[in-house]
Specification:
2 copies of one chain form a homodimer. Chain A is an alpha/beta fold. The first copy, chain A, is built from 11 helices and 8 strands. At the A-B interface, helix 2, helix 4, helix 5, helix 6 and helix 7 of A face helix 2, helix 4, helix 5, helix 6 and helix 7 of B. Chains A, B: Belongs to the OMP decarboxylase family. Type 1 subfamily.
């Protein structure tokens, strides 16, 4: 994924028309559009190819299965036109490696969730976040997903993974993270959802974020 | 889910016609058919309703997201005609509760993965398997998924969750677990894939397993 603006749109809508309209408006300001299962299951896998006309698509499917199933899922997603898949890391090294191997063959990207920021993430995930980040580096994934709500954690994760992997970072905007703070802390991309797609003028909201980050990119 | 035979088919194929043909053949011997994303992404969500004519459908999507996204995914899956969804427990109590709450409203089932049996499950999952089983019981999920390859673990998990939750147990057949051993250890259903759908006569293979378990059900 090429970094031009440092901005990724989290397109958390479930309606096809709305998804297309927003993507069209912000296409000039984002390096990628991240979509999830709620949109794809309610519209169909062709939603991926339709949106890929506007920007590279990151399928945030948080894939969390055995190696062979992880591979089969990523195969379908890449075939549909996505450029990257987000996978969970807690299912271990072989599940991750199966996804990364396929992605490398197809010149695509795998991003690994290291930690999440909802309350339940404290139950089991928080204590293994750094181990997952290290595993992602060992497996030579393209990058990790680390929450922008805690820039100090982004800086920690950066130390663990080094500079070969990217950090994409959700939580900017509605969830309170600041785009420039997260980039300064070591993230390569910020992922922004509601603050763009619920804005009266999504393009203007995206442009404002891009301008804010410009000097730190 | 009602237990008649104790057998669940893991329909791990990706072709629509093959999926329908196998389901038709074994419909009389299974209490449910478990399908995953590889099949649904390659055919479409209508695959669920098509197969639900043969048996209740368990969507093994290993849902592993934040509470709101978990709810949105389960909504789509139930709407498509599935009777149950398998979720990961790793993402914590609130993610699980969001899925269970919706399932109860719609009179559907949520099964929680407590541990998996691929090598990578030792990296992060094994040490929290019992904690996840306890969380599943606290959240009043319908049941848990625990591997048949280790009947002694099934017995441990049964002690933790008590008798209000079901145990559905994959790993019988090609992976080496014995159906009757797992039922004796405390599982309510065994989940069998290749040993049925790759058999020359899938109906006969299913019948044989049903007969083997009959006296322990």
């Amino acid at each position: 994924m090429e970094r031009k603006t440092g901005l990724i749109l989290a397109l958390d809508v479930t309606d096809r028309l709305e998804a297309v309209e927003i993507s069209e408006k912000v296409a000039g300001y984002v390096d990628a559009i991240k979509i999830g299962y709620p949109l794809v299951l309610s519209t169909g896998m062709d939603m991926i190819s339709q949106l890929s006309k506007f920007a590279p698509i990151i399928a945030d499917f948080k894939v969390a299965d055995i190696p062979n199933t992880n591979r089969l899922i990523c195969e379908q997603v890449f075939k549909a036109g996505a450029d990257a898949v987000i996978v969970q890391g807690f299912t271990g090294h072989d599940s991750l490696e199966a996804a990364v191997k396929l992605a490398k063959e197809e010149n695509k990207d795998i991003y690994v969730v290291t930690e999440m920021s909802h309350p339940g993430a404290l139950d089991f995930m928080q204590q293994v976040g750094e181990g997952i980040a290290k595993m992602a580096a060992d497996a030579k994934a393209s990058g990790v997903v680390a929450p922008a709500t805690r820039p100090e954690r982004v800086a920690e994760i950066r130390k663990i993974i080094g500079n070969d992997l990217s950090i994409i970072s959700p939580g900017v905007g509605a969830q309170g993270g600041s785009a420039s703070d997260v980039i300064k802390a070591g993230a390569d991309w910020v992922i922004v959802g509601r603050a763009i797609y619920q804005a009266e003028d999504p393009a203007m909201a995206a442009k404002k974020l891009v301008d804010e980050m410009k000097e730190f990119i």
